[in-house]
Amino acid sequence: MRFGFGVLRLSPRAFWSMTLRELEAAAQAHFVAPIEAPKRDWLEDAMARFPDDSPDITQSPEAVSTR
After folding, report:
1. How far is CA 7 from the centre of its chain?
2. How much is the pTM?
3. Helix/strand/coil percentages in the chain, nearest 5
4. 18, 25, 46, 48: which one has the fewest Cβ atoms less than 10 Å from its Cβ?
């Protein structure tokens, strides 16, 4: 978040709509050195710690309740 908001000066909407690949590409362009993308376990932990109201895309469509 510090990199996205502080260095790239992205709006919250632009930052949160970025994919990890887009964020990685922006970081590589800025730092010029290869940067390792976040691992799956980090992403799952972040999703658990900061949930949103989106359905869980890892579940089958039958398991996701409709609103």
Report:
1. 17
2. 0.46
3. 50, 0, 50
4. 48
